[in-house]
Amino acid sequence: MKITITKNGPYVVDPDVPLKEVDSVASRQGGVSAYEEKQAHDKAGSAAYLCRCGHSQNKPFCDGHHTKVGFDGAETNNRKNYDDEAEFIQGTVYNVLDNSKLCTVARFCDAGKGFWDAVDKADEASKKYVEHVGCTCNGGRLTLVDKQSGQKLEPKLEKEIYLVKDVPAGHLGPIHVRGGIQVVGADGFEYEVRNRIALCRCGESGNMPFCDATHMNCAHMEI
What we know:
By secondary structure, this protein is an alpha+beta fold. The chain has helices spanning 65-68, 82-85, 115-119, 124-136; strands at residues 2-5, 11-13, 19-26, 32-41, 48-50, 87-89, 94-98, 142-146, 152-153, 160-166, 171-178, 182-184, 196-199.
């Protein structure tokens, strides 16, 4: 399974990669607690062409608007591996790897007592909360590392794509790629395969092809 980026054009998603529309579910604290699956797209065994410029009138699919708006889809990410860029933060039960450039403002870390406060605590409630946040961060900004075993904590995810609709924020969110699907750049470069990544679909990220939460300020991504 793979996703191929076309030069200044859409993402081409292999026929066997499932596409699902999901809504962000608001938490009592004002963050996001979960995703709710709303619709699965039947691709009928064909590749899917997903909008990358953000201006399609047939989202999530490309309708050719990238040519009308002069979309520049240059891949500006520095292509370094996650571990080489992530900050290492000491915690009590889990240490944390944090690559802030991958933050999508999905707000799972705002769904409880506060992630960074909970990381320093050892009670069971804090531990469960930290695990939830660390495993749902859709851009993979946060990764938990067990202090005893040194192993990364990752959820078991099916290989699929979530097309995020951030209902509480009133904007369409990123393309959440789950389960470790290869992303291939327009020049053939193979990006690091990770369990959780978020691809830009507003067309204005400063970290292309990855989401950097710019969609939150884009009028063309409002819902």
